[in-house]
Amino acid sequence: MPLSAARVTLGSATVALAMLLTTPPANAVPVTHSAVTRDGVDRRVLLTPAEQPPAGEAYGEPWINPYFEPAVTGPTCWRYGRATGASAGLSARFSTPTWFHAYNDVWVFPSADAAAAFERQWRADLATCVDRNPPGESGSFVLDVTKAGEAGGVDVLRVTSGLNPYPQTQHWWVAVVRQGTAVYAVQLLDYRDGDPRPVPFDDTVAAIRKRLATYYP
Fold first, then answer.
1. Cα separation, 123 vs 6, whole angstroms
2. What is the 3-state secondary structure (H, E, C) of 104-125?
């Protein structure tokens, strides 16, 4: 679950950790790469498991989040609850057997200008992310947001976070691509211990740009 919603939607850190580590529920909606538009998004825009950031492990098929709220939820560090301006959205989670969960979130907007405004607001939120998510009794906390690199002209961010009231931390590798009338975010939750090396996003960002040019120019 990306951090933009964690502080509001999680009743406790224990519940949050269980949600991230358990397998998708039996009634999970399987993804098919056809023009299924029940949630307003062309499913063919979604990356495949092979197009996720390379983590040294194979990703399974995605679980589609039926509770995704594109109207009020943005990428990691978005101030949850504020209107995004999106007209549709899709959230899918790709998981490896051990250390990684890749959240692929797509927001579709009425215009390219609206998509640009969404990205600008998210970038403004990054500056206050740590202050707005301090260690506490419930929800999540953020210790650091830094630029880890660049892929295809897109910043790759490293967000160090945790779940209250536990002191353990994990890392998120975040890349947000805006193109045409859509924004596509890949937010990779990394449970590896210590100070892990960055995961490359070059091929993933290139694949996103190709998909958005095709389905949401």
1. 19
2. EEEEECCCHHHHHHHHHHHHHH
